[in-house]
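Why predict the complex rather than its parts? Because the way molecules touch one another can change local conformation, and only a joint prediction can capture that. The input here totals 492 residues.
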Amino acid sequence: MSTMNRLSEILTSYFGVDESEVRPDATFAELDLDSLAIVEFALVAEKEFGVSIGDDEVSPQATVTDAVALLDAKGVPADA
Amino acid sequence: MPESTADGFHAAVTGLGMVTPAGIGVGESWRGICAGESAAAFDEELEGMPVDFTCRVPGFDADKLLGRRTAWRLDRYVHLALVAAREAIADAGLDPKTWDGTRVGVVMGNALGGIATFEQQHNTMLTEGAGKMSSMLIPMMGVNMVAGYIAIDCGAQGPNLVTTTACASATTAIGTARDLLRSGRCDIVLAGGAEAGLTKPILAGFTRMGALSGRIDEPGAASRPFEKDRDGFVAAEGAGILVLERMAHAEARGARIRARVSGYGASADAHHATAPDPSGAGVTTAIGSALADAGLAPSDIDHVNAHGTSTPLNDAVEAKVLRRMFGDKPAVTSVKGVTGHSLGAAGAIEAACVVLSIEQGMVPPTANLDSQDPAIDIDVVREKPRAMKVSAAMSNSFGFGGQNAVLVLTAN
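Output of the joint prediction:
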């Protein structure tokens, strides 16, 4: 599964975001993830992807594409 | 119809919402409560504890009822409250899109806040470290948050607060809401209570106090208010909300006025942390003050929805005061035989029951009343609902700390 698909799965199953909303250019704020929720997102993503994400590495203004790029840069394997 | 209140003020009850161990929604809850069958059962989350049974809301799925997008960031006690609040608002025929939110208050009772979330996060801190704790801990656990989240959900921008008087919290909330309407600060107040603190440490704490029934072999028989072999309460969860309005506001919009909150009284025993004053002085003061506020005499009261926790001490003192003040006239019931004791939510669930008793002319029975305590000389409704006219009724709640709160409700 691609990083994008796994990210989408987290956003829909854990955070209740509608699948149709998870577009590459959607920001976390648009998906109802404010700064508090982003901290939770980082925890959930750390568990899912097995990488460490700092509280300031994702902001509500970041897009889904930004998050995928961040995860890929951290060496997330394409399949896990 | 009863006489007017001391100053002629009544709050109209125009909507009800209930989420109880007897069911989700007013209809299911009321049917279960009238059926008189205890909701207590073995609780798998308490496996291995000395008291391992509770009254939980059956089949409550917050993700389904509220949507995962809302539910994930809230503690269960707020989940229960939001479902009840939405039901109450719809029942009142109100549309939050069109109301003047600045005139809508929220007053909720609660005792334990998001204690389950706190315990879970405390465990995360101990096992995984502070850096793995949820950013939602604080907004999920605050006792005040239930009123805040109701406001966010429906756009109620008026006074917003939580009252916390232990087991009397929701009754205090409804009384406080009535005062807000009476003072003119609000036209509408969503008032009630919510609780979901059925965790191992909380249950163990109540067990260590000797407050809970120890009938682990027959949980369905454990909550037995006013019965001779009662041995403690059964812990429960739930939520209840009443939509209260200024009478003129309700009438102007053509709302169905289901009943009125006509009086409120409160007092403190100033006696002991957890035991009621055996003289019943504090309870007597609260009841007397609620009757005076309503401008009613004891003989006007047809029905009492008792605190009736099923603890040896509470039921004895409450019954003694009722006998002394009212004789054997009012039909007394304790719905805790069915629902268990939902602490900060109990008073609202019970006030909602009183509204339904007034409306339907029916008082639900006290479950498990096989043999009434011979020392308790009041008319307790048993076995099946009693059909009777209820023009004026009282709802009692008494909390640890000796905090007493009493409501008088009347037919419109």
